[in-house]
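Retro notes (design track)

What went well: tokenization of the new backbones is finally stable.
What didn't: we kept losing track of which sequence belonged to which structure.
Fix going forward: every design gets posted as structure first, then sequence, in one message. First example under the new rule, 576 residues:
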């Protein structure tokens, strides 16, 4: 392993140098089998700036559209709406890996050849996920990738190259390494030839690096989960991480940044990265080689310099992600992940089979209700069975005020006592409340709204007013009963497929991950002490990750079911 690692690393470091990447206070080296390569601190530590990467080195949709080989074909498909920006980058990675004498070869050679996400599971490993959202999503993603490959990738790559590979690796490389990069509008949409010339400079320097090296010797499955998780994180943390959002002249674009993409994830990340458009942070002049550049930096802004030791791995945070998203996108999980969440949904197709489906579908649309929601573990800190006091009581007060102001306009229903302890999102409860309505309740809602806006229909009621009318007519008990049913069905599906939570905990207690010889030997040597004489279960890291993930799902399903059942009991007692 050491020889092959060094053989790949040295040409890559030369390639970075030629492309004006500065490793100031860090080095890139092999970490371990589960992480691959990582970034580690070095003795040359200065000013908190560890790594500087010219933004022109990033693989972005703009680069692909300007590529002389695949750019024209991609631009035609992109303008016709046949493909999205992610497809462009996945295609670029596929083509460059297959292209002889690719200028990107030193970088691509450093990238993994196998991954820990479910697309790379064996059939037996995939069965460990049966009953989870990830199992269904992986099956769908495999079908989508196969269709994408057959319909678009295969013929296009054959037209450009002699095809002898697949796009599955490129897909995994993209999803495990892409960053959301804030770019100026002028960088994304260059207006003149001078702006376009920036792409030529990187191609020339990359080719020079490859020549030097030769002398010395490169969809959509669970994307909904990612997008939904990003939306929830944005609401909770005030973050913005969408592809098309803008702030003034800034656009957020996904891309790969060679060098920074070797940073691994940690909950307690020691570093951050940002775009330095002026050079004030990095000290890099705003003009390099006659072309304006924006520099990505990895900077030690969160910790004291004294906490950094030579050879310590430097990590960044991939965001507040649950194990469902971490496993699907990146191929790893975090045991007892504080950012874990449970996704529940009411099947949209089931709406058509319920009584009064047309009327209810109209009400759902008018209320902008959501048929799916994420339940982050952190919500439990504010619930009926929270351990200790909530971290921020102001959140509870705000929640209560918001809901009272939403539901008190007619005064026909008494405010519930449990409002500040109800952890379930109101948008989802609104959907369930509407789905559970009886025929007479629909008529009462119409009457309430008519009183509010007038019989002549002088104006349309707002979504908040429709929600208020539905709540004051129906209360909470119907929605909470339906929520209890959904959570029970979720838990049953999980347990029927892989047993109860206690069974998973026992498997993990006895587990021995066999991927690494060092880990394997350590596991066997300590087996009697660690498991009280129980027989150890040898398993791959993928299997271990699956069990950690599904155990967390069962734990959350049980805890949220307990919350829903208690809320239902209170609602029935109070006549809600």
């Amino acid at each position: 392993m050491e020889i092959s690692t060094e053989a790949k690393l040295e040409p890559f470091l030369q390639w970075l140098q030629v492309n004006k990447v500065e490793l100031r206070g860090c080095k890139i080296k092999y970490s371990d089998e589960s992480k691959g390569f990582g970034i580690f601190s070095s003795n040359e530590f200065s000013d908190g700036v560890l790594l500087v990467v010219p933004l022109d080195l990033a693989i972005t949709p703009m680069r692909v559209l300007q590529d002389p080989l695949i750019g024209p074909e991609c631009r035609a498909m992109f303008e016709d709406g046949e493909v999205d920006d992610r497809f462009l980058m996945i295609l670029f990675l596929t083509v460059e890996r297959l292209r002889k004498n690719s200028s990107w070869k030193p970088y691509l050679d450093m990238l993994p050849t196998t991954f820990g996400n479910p697309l790379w599971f064996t059939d037996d490993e995939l069965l460990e996920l049966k009953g989870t959202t990830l199992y269904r999503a992986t099956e769908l993603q495999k079908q989508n990738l196969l269709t994408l490959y057959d319909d678009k990738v295969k013929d296009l790559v054959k037209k450009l190259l002699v095809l002898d590979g697949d796009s599955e690796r490129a897909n995994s490389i993209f999803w495990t390494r892409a960053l959301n990069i804030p770019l100026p509008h002028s960088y994304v949409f260059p207006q003149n030839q001078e702006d376009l010339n920036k792409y030529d400079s990187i191609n020339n320097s990359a080719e020079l690096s490859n020549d030097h090296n030769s002398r010395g010797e490169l969809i959509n499955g669970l994307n909904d989960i990612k997008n939904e998780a990003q939306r929830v994180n944005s609401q909770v943390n005030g973050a913005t991480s969408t592809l098309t959002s803008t702030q003034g002249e800034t656009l957020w674009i996904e891309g790969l940044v060679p060098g920074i993409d070797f940073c691994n994830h940690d909950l307690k990340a020691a570093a951050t990265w940002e775009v330095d458009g002026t050079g004030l942070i990095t000290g890099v002049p705003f003009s390099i080689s006659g072309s304006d550049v924006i520099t990505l930096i990895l900077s030690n802004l969160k910790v004291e310099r004294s906490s950094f030791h030579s050879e310590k791995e430097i990590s960044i945070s991939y965001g507040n992600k649950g194990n469902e998203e971490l496993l699907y996108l990146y191929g790893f999980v975090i045991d007892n992940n504080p950012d874990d969440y449970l996704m529940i949904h009411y099947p949209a197709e089931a709406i058509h089979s319920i009584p009064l489906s047309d009327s209810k579908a109209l009400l759902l649309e008018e209320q902008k209700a959501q048929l799916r929601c994420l339940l982050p573990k952190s919500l439990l800190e504010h619930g009926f069975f929270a351990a200790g006091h909530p971290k921020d009581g102001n959140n509870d007060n705000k929640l209560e005020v918001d809901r009272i102001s939403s539901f008190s306009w007619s005064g026909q229903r008494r405010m519930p006592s449990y409002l500040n302890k109800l952890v379930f999102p109101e948008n989802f409860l609104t959907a369930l409340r509407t789905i559970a309505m009886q025929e007479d309740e629909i008529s009462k809602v119409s009457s309430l709204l008519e009183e509010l806006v007038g019989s002549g229909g002088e104006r349309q009621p707002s979504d908040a007013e429709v929600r208020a009318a539905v709540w004051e007519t129906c209360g909470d008990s119907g929605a909470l009963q339906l929520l209890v049913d959904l959570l029970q069905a979720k838990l049953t599906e999980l347990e029927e497929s892989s047993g109860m939570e206690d069974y998973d905990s026992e498997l993990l207690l006895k587990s021995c991950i066999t991927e690494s010889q060092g880990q394997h030997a350590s596991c066997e040597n300590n087996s009697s002490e660690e498991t009280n004489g129980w027989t150890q279960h040898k398993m791959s890291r993928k299997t271990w990750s699956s069990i950690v993930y599904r155990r967390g799902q069962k734990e959350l399903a049980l805890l949220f079911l307990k919350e829903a059942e208690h809320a239902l009991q209170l609602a029935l007692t109070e006549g809600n």
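Added context from the reviewer: The chain has 22 helices and 17 strands.
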